[in-house]
Design goal:
This protein is α/β, with parallel strands linked by helices. The chain is about 45% helix and about 15% strand. The protein is built from 7 helices and 7 strands. The protein binds NADPH dihydro-nicotinamide-adenine-dinucleotide phosphate. This is NADP-dependent 3-hydroxy acid dehydrogenase YdfG.
């Protein structure tokens, strides 16, 4: 039997790219979303539509979903993974940075929900997988706005899960600890970046999660029977203390 379409945002690197590879290996057609189209296409996955969409652009996201569903049929899962982490002290950070985090991590994620939810409710089938963070459950130094955006992801995901339960649609929250990806690279404060790298090297002996570790958890949660909802997965390197 043909496997249903899976949509992944932020698939051009890190967790999203690893998740795309896993779902593809499991036989699913894919719609991959990010701004760097060349990086999506470089994955060279079969039955895969790649679209350069900024998830802040709701109309473009809705259009890409419609285009993919016209080719591969209805989407059965959305991995709402695209996000940015711009660490800083609030009294020093450019407000543009916290606006950008809320626009992408929270409003962009809701754009993804919006693009898929109507069809899933109508079909009484589907899974929304929202990538939050351990920083969606507890605080960390220099993380004020990022923590705020990820607490929002946890809160809205749990409320959405309750709302969609009667419609047989699942909502899964994935909360990883530190993962080796490009995420830290967008923080502009060099001192904070150095401290973060030192925390990984010294406190964790340089052993953090890989993107593949997190992708494995995402695909496992999806592959449970539809009547089983893995509400939340919190995973971190064994050596990660906070
Ligand atoms: P990466 O920086 O490697 O990946 C982020 C992805 O998001 C990229 O594909 C990027 O693509 C995409 N993205 C960013 N902004 C937009 C946008 N406006 N529109 C569309 N796509 C966008 O980091 P990770 O893989 O680590 O991050 C994935 C998720 O995991 C994030 O939500 C992050 O908060 C979360 N997370 C990461 C942890 C970590 O330690 N790495 C820990 C806990 C959670 P492009 O730039 O091409 O648009």
């Amino acid at each position: 039997m043909n496997k249903p379409l899976i949509i992944i945002t932020g698939a051009s690197s890190g967790i999203g790219a690893a998740t795309a590879q896993r779902f593809s290996a499991a036989g699913h057609p894919l719609l991959l979303i990010a701004r760097r189209l060349d990086r999506l296409e470089a994955l060279a996955l079969p039955d895969c539509l790649c679209r350069a969409v900024d998830i802040r652009d709701r109309a473009a996201l809705v259009a890409a979903v419609a285009e993919a569903e016209a080719v591969y049929g209805p989407a059965d899962a959305l991995v709402n993974n695209a996000g940015v982490m711009l660490l800083g002290q609030m009294h020093e950070q450019d407000p543009e940075q916290w606006e950008r985090m809320f626009d992408i991590n929270v409003k962009g994620l809701l754009n993804g929900v919006h693009a898929l939810i109507g069809g899933m409710v109508e079909r009484r089938h589907g899974t929304l997988i929202n990538v939050s963070s351990v920083a969606g459950r507890k605080t960390f130094p220099n993380h004020v706005a990022y923590v705020g955006s990820k607490f929002a992801v946890h809160g809205l995901s749990e409320n959405l899960r309750e709302e969609l339960a009667p419609h047989n649609v699942r909502v899964v929250t994935i909360a990883p600890g530190a993962v080796e990806t490009e995420l830290l690279g967008h923080t502009t404060d060099e001192g904070i970046k150095r401290d973060y790298e030192a925390w990984k090297a010294n406190d964790m002996g340089g052993v953090v999660l890989s993107a593949e570790d997190v992708a494995g958890a995402i695909v496992w949660a999806y592959q449970q029977p539809q009547q089983v909802c893995i509400r939340e997965i919190v995973l971190a390197a064994t050596a990660q203390q906070p």
